[in-house]
# Entry
Amino acid sequence: MDTNKHIATHWDCFLADLNAIDWESPLSSFHGSNSEILRKLAGDKPLMKRLILGALEDPYLWSKCEEDINEDKIVLWDDVEKGMRIRLRMSTQPQQRLAHSHRFTFTNLVMRGSYTHWHYDRLPSFDEKTRLDDVKTSAQHVDREGDTFSIHHEALHSTPFPENGTVSLVLRGNPIKERAPVMFKEARGRTDALADLRNNEIEPEHAQKGDFFWRVGEDRESTSRRAERQMTQEKLDFWVKELEKFGLL
Amino acid sequence: MNVMKNTPGKAPVCEFLDTVNLDWANDFEQAAEESRAILQQICGTPGWLDDLFTHAEQDAELREKAEGHQLLDYIVLYDKLDRGVRLRLHLSTEDHLQRPHDHRFDFSTRVLCGSYEHCLIIPRLDPYKISPEPQAIHYQDRFNPDPNLNLLNEDLQESFVRQVKSGSTLSLSNNVIHTVKTAADTVSLVLRGPARKNRSFIFDRGSEAAWWRFGAADETSARRSDKVMSDAKFQQSKEHFQRLNIIK
# Structure
């Protein structure tokens, strides 16, 4: 599959001219410049709309656009050589607090909404054997519209979006691990429902506090699982209208 | 429900703070949320900061707790650590250095003006295990760094960074190592709890030297006299806060 079609198509936009990001360097060395990239992109509404509509036209990007349990994602850009994937993240339901790390390091811009950002003590290991009470809150702050942050792939945190229509723009590096750990710090769904954990690499629709699963990349997911998560064109059209209504396009 | 009694001569903000009780040790999340709300209320109620500063200036016990450091100066505005409350007004100095450090206490902070780059740190080594407490007491400032701690910058890895601006709040537990790179004229209101440990750690990225900070009871007399804020410095700080419209 041609992974650079969108880069060739949008050769004239500033993203095509950016230098590669050294995600291994200290966060403070790229946080400022990454924040500028995200703010410049978010501030260019015609470009944002062009890239969102362009995702549908590019099979590579489109295959990464997802509808999940409580949020949808639209991938706008993915330059693997430069270590630069940019995607929109939009909440579709109030989200539970999940303590997790990521498969990649990234920078995030809050485009709409706000939420409490939780940080947890570093643990010697964080996996299915970790107990709920071992995951201790070490810091809290509030991310508001216009705020950016950068986070290392080893850091444990939670960013539960409390309301529908919370929107973030994310600039991330290439994944450097196959799967990332996630623990429910709040229950999801009926607390007496059994957690659907037959496959702990699939996010369950119901969970109790302390339930655990792994987030994996597309390459580890089955074809049927990818098909389940694939965004539809109807949903993309919905988001274009919704983002226009929010004043973001 | 907190009920405030009207004590003649007592400022409403002090009456309000007299009803606060924060259990940092047993419920950090609750204390963190409540303390951020308290900071918001203090900053949002006209006259409350002025009254607190006047009280701090006139109360001998509070006045002697004011301190000057290389990177910040602070005034203690209210002090009832038995109820989990010590309130401090911080002002950044002209020095802006990268010094990863933790604190002996849990706290929340609200930026009143200015800004800073805030980083959370993942330590690759545990300085508390490398340099046990009895010997660490000899190394309390940058002129007497701890020779047992041969740390490098890469041992203190940045795990999270954001820009903290006016109106932003943050709560941090005592075991988190962080850095605060302030812009000039940055003022924060800090609500801290009681000490949860005897010492805290600090590292200078420029020299890769590390040392320890202890509470007043364990500090050397040289260290104490170095930190205590003189009357002239207190007046300077007051005028600085006035210029920044923090107090009248």
